[in-house]
Amino acid sequence: MSQTLNLVLLGINHNTAPIEVRERLAIPAGMLADATRTLVHQPGIREGLILSTCNRVELLTLQENGGSNNADLLRFLHEYFSVAPASLTPHLYEYREREAIRHLFRVASSLDSMVVGEPQILGQVKESYTVAREVGAVSSSLESLIQRAFTVAKKVRSETQIGSSSVSIASVAVDLARKIFGSLDGKTVLLVGAGKMSELAARHLIHQGASNILVANRTIERAEKIAAQFNGQVIPFDSLYDQAARADIVITSTGAPQKLFGRSHGQHFLQSRRNRPMFFIDIAVPRDVDPRMNEVEGCFVYDIDDLQQVAAANLADRSREAAAAETIVTLEVEKYQQRVQSLDAASAIRGLQEHAEAVRQAELKRSASKLAGLTEDQQAAVEALTRSLTNKFLHAPMTALRGAARDGDAQALAELESLYTGQQRNRSETNSKS
Q1: What is the distance between the alpha carbons of residues 194 and 226, in angstroms, rounded to a whole number?
Q2: Domain map of the chain by residue range?
Q3: Residue 280: beta bridge partners?
Q4: Lowest mean pLDDT: which of 136-145, 303-312, 329-338, 381-390?
Q5: Strand pairing partners for 249?
Q6: What is the mean pLDDT of residues 69-88?
Q7: Which is higher by pLDDT, 297 or 393?
Q8: Cα 64 from Cα 255, distance rounded (Å)
């Protein structure tokens, strides 16, 4: 990214950590601003962003050289979430510089999602970016990178068919319910939580034949809005346990810190239903349903990690489009790196030119008394000659700087800049003393 800052990304996702680990790091939407603010107050971190979804928690940071590193970010996770480092370390991944850029582009383009091609992740990245900007955690360097990630994601969607059909965690969940029941015709569905995921689930359920939609949410206005869209019925949240047994399928996606349904609830529901089966799809992180409910005969519980088997079939169908998308990402990473490096070279060249011009002006000033007798045309000739000589002397070092930037050799670029500008500065200081 720069000669003085390092790009570092640390995270866990559905490929590296089971849900019982991920849910311990889940950040409710209302707490994201505080977490982001706390992150960028860590020693050595200049800019930062936190992406927290049901499938991943990632810290994208721009760090000072010699400052924060993996251990510092791990300490942040330990202190902020009260999770022992030893329980996180086996599940963490870390990317730096080019690989961090590549990972961000892949995530935004939904190539790293449980359901490849799902559209929700880009919106979640944008939400994290908005929060980071609002708390002052993102400025010029990360701003440029994140905006480029949005552009790459848009390009992937427009130039491939990776998002050709409506795919999401919600649609996969509904597909699983359809396969288990054979048909959703006439089934009653209870949505617990009225967020975007519930809305998506409701659309897919109706498309698959579900006729009765019940909606329960702590904020009654939101529940009414979702129910109105689908001719559903609102259940007051304080009546949830009395009414839930009416549902054949329960889809939960709340942000509750504690589980809403336990084993005893399942026993009560099955008794009320006279042992007719009840199907729970828990797409919340942290989970809403205690997995021990599976021990109740007639209760079937699937959490978000269980959906991976269905998602795997989806990935196979999209493998060709995913390969095309990966090629786009690879090319875009290279283009972004070249752009960043050319900006570094431009800055170094500009500094070199400024130093050279300062030396030229100092030499002309030192020789002013000897040139005083020259005519106006002769003075113009001296001006043109010194400018021409300066440009010729600059040609070799400027070519070297551009070459180092083109080759991605940041160390050589820094050394050349220091060498040439240092020489020019020393000469200027010597001339000013003489």
Answers
A1: 7
A2: 5-163, 169-315, 339-433
A3: 250, 301
A4: 303-312
A5: 189, 279
A6: 87
A7: 297
A8: 35
CATH code for the domain defined by 5-163: 3.30.460.30
CA 307-310-315 angle, to 5 degrees, is 115
- Clarify whether 299 is annotated catalytic: no
What is the identity of the amino acid at 196?
Answer: K
- State how far the Cα of 100 lies from the Cα of 297, in Å rounded to an integer: 46
Closest CA to 197 of 299, 313, 285, 317: 285
* Helix, strand and coil percent figures for the chain, each rounded to 5: 60, 15, 25
In the chain, % of residues over pLDDT 90: 46
Could you tell me which residues come within 8 angstroms of residue 2 by beta carbon, excluding any fewer than 6 positions away? 141, 340, 344
Task: Quickly state the pLDDT bin for 354 (edges 50, 70, 90).
Answer: confident
Which class is 169-315 in CATH?
Answer: alpha beta
Q: Coil, strand or helix: which one is 12?
A: strand
**pLDDT digit string, tens, across residues 231-255:** 899 999 999 999 999 999 999 989 8
- Catalytic-labelled residue, pool 40, 49, 54, 281: 54
Query: Which of 187-191, 229-233, 328-332, 386-390 is least confident?
Result: 386-390
Residue 382 tokens read as: 């001296």
pLDDT in tens, 144-203: 899 999 999 999 999 988 876 545 677 777 777 887 788 888 899 999 998 777 777 778
Beta bridge partners of 10: 59, 94
CA distances from 21 to 52, 54, 329, 360 (A): 13, 11, 29, 64
- Tell me the pLDDT tens digit for each residue of 282-299: 988 999 999 999 999 999
pLDDT > 70: what percent of the chain?
84
Asked if domains 5-163 and 169-315 share a fold, the reply is no
The contacts found for 75-80 with CB under 8 angstroms, 24 or more apart, are: 75/42, 76/38, 76/39, 76/42, 77/10, 77/25, 80/35, 80/38
Strands (DSSP E) contained in 185-284 are 188-192, 212-216, 233-234, 249-252, 278-282
Among 64, 32, 34, 59, CA closest to 48: 59
How many residues in total does the chain contain? 434
Q: Could you give the angle at the alpha carbon of 259 between the alpha carbons of 258 and 260, nearest 5°?
A: 115
Sign of CA dihedral 90, 94, 99, 103: positive
What DSSP assignment string belongs to 16-34? TS-HHHHHHH---GGGHHH
